[in-house]
Amino acid sequence: MAERETWATRLGFILAAVGSAVGLGNLWQFPFKTSAEGGAAFVFVYLIAAFLIGLPAILGEFVIGRRANINAVEAFDRLKHPAWTVVGAIGLLTGLWILSYYSVVGGWVIRFIVDSATGAYFTDPGGHFGDVSMGWAAIGLHGLFMATTAVIVAFGVEKGIEKATRLMVPSILVMLVGLAVYAFTLDGSGPAYGYYLSPDFDYLANNFGSIVPFAVSQAFFSLSLGMGAMITYASYLGDDDSLPADGSLIVVLNTAVGLLAGLVVIPLLFVQFGSVPDVAAGGGPDALFVGVSQVFADLGLAGRVFGVAFFGVVLIAALSSAISLLEVATSYVVDNYGYNRPVTAFGFAGAIFALGTLSAWNIAWLGWFDSLAYSVLLPVSVLLVVIFVGWVYGPEAVDEIKKGTDGGGTFATAWLWSIRTYVLAGVFVTLYLGVTDIYAAPPIPFL
Ligand code: PFF
Q: If you measure from the C-alpha of residue 212 to the centroid of ligand 1, how many angstroms do you get, rounded to a whole number?
């Protein structure tokens, strides 16, 4: 077998992992889930989940990946627990499921780049999204997004993924800060900050059962957990890297981007609607698009330039996440069956494209795919990883965490304790509440 590729530099790994983490989950989903789930109470649970559950869990995936040095499915076999390869397979399938509708949203982003350039939505920024989000054009752009993802994955780790993510993080941060400051100066944005940043604990207590599963799964989604992505990326990592240092940096950067996106979108919705509109009226999957397109329309010619730049960066963020999902499946087939990388990448992309046509045809399907991912697939997948790392692999995992750190023994022991106890309990409760939630109100898709 050919020698396995590795990251050219430590920075390469961090950027690629951040590239996987930072994406539509932060920019598109986080603001709209925040507005759909009541504002700051959701943000509060999300923050706790990202640091207290997400960070230990991401380290768990890093341990599996680096130790096994192979794709997410065979990793468990390599670690001498062949029965657990099913966990890798569940992750892989969860990732493909998510990618199917993620790519549809990626298609919308491409559409908004073009429509910013031409000013197509300037006369009716609020209504434009409804006109372009479903149907044949949406299917075509979903195909274009998937094909682009496949091209990058086909080039392999170093040439494709590392290069594609290098500029993305700084440019996203700059744009979001600029837009957040701009939103702050607009009339009517004032009340948004209380709504977004000051949690109403009574509201949280009364809506615990729906806020918790969405907020915790949002942390998983956003950190690319439970889909084999972080296992796969860590498998290209050398032993001299400190997993806790890399993991913490990734969680901090990822959370910062999500919070900033909220600071852009929520105030812009308040400016336009006086409050956050309900899900059907602009506070749903369209929140990002409706929020920012009004601003670009108001700015006239300059808005065209800013619009192209903004959606351009969102597209890069979306692509660098999508490639990590496609990479999970591709690297499995390439490692295991020795298939040609480009053919494999395009084969998977074709299958995912076909599945995603449902979501591109009708947004109700997209909502259904998304609910199932949040309420069931992500928590199941993360729960199994946590059980494996904590209780099955345990002591060896501690050794792996210590590698590349100075000492690090106390941290590693505390980490194992957390994974075995409250992290496991937290993910279990999330799954329980998610299943109860979806069972009480099964979302019914239609054509
Ligand atoms: N974390 C990405 C985001 O927040 O957009 C989405 C994602 C990418 C999820 C890769 C899962 C994954 F494996």
A: 19
- Give the residues surrounding ligand 1 with Cβ less than 6 Å away: 20-21, 23-26, 95, 98, 221-222, 224, 227, 229, 321, 324-325
For 410, the token pair is 């106390």
Nearest alpha carbon, ligand 1 atom 7? 224
Distance 435 CA to ligand 1 centre (A): 22
| 6: helix, strand or coil | coil
Pocket test for ligand 1, best of 34, 62, 102, 230 (most atoms within 8 A of CB): 102
Q: Determine the residue of 161, 221, 330 to mutate for testing ligand 1's pocket, defined as the one with the most ligand atoms within 8 A of the Cβ atom.
A: 221
Q: Which two tokens stand for residue 382?
A: 């993360």
2 or 324, higher pLDDT: 324
Asked if residues 315 and 113 have their Cβ atoms less than 8 Å apart, the reply is yes
**d(C-alpha 251, C-alpha 7), whole Å:** 20
User: What are the structural domains, with CATH classification, of the chain?
Assistant: 10-440 (1.10.4160.10)
Residue 168 banded pLDDT, cuts 50, 70, 90: confident
Question: In whole angstroms, what is the distance from residue 108 CA to residue 115 CA?
Answer: 10
Distances (CA, A) of 183 to 15, 83, 289, 335: 28, 52, 15, 48
Which residue is closest in CA terms to ligand 1's atom 12? 224
Pocket test for ligand 1, best of 321, 326, 328, 330 (most atoms within 8 A of CB): 321
Cβ neighbours, 10 Å, residue 53: 26
Residues 73-83 have pLDDT tens digits of 999 999 999 99
Tokens of 197: 């940043």
At 116, which amino acid appears?
Answer: S
Q: Of ligand 1's atoms, which has the minimum distance to the CA of residue 30?
A: 4
Q: For 277, which DSSP code?
A: -
pTM as predicted: 0.93
Is the pLDDT assigned to residue 161 strictly greater than 70? no
Q: At what angle do helices 287-298 and 243-273 cross, to 10 degrees?
A: 60
Among the atoms of ligand 1, which is closest to the Cα of residue 317?
A: 5
Residue-level pLDDT at 3: 56
The runs of H, that is alpha helices, within 37-84 are 40-48, 55-68, 75-78
Is the CB of residue 49 less than 8 Å from the CB of residue 64? Answer: no
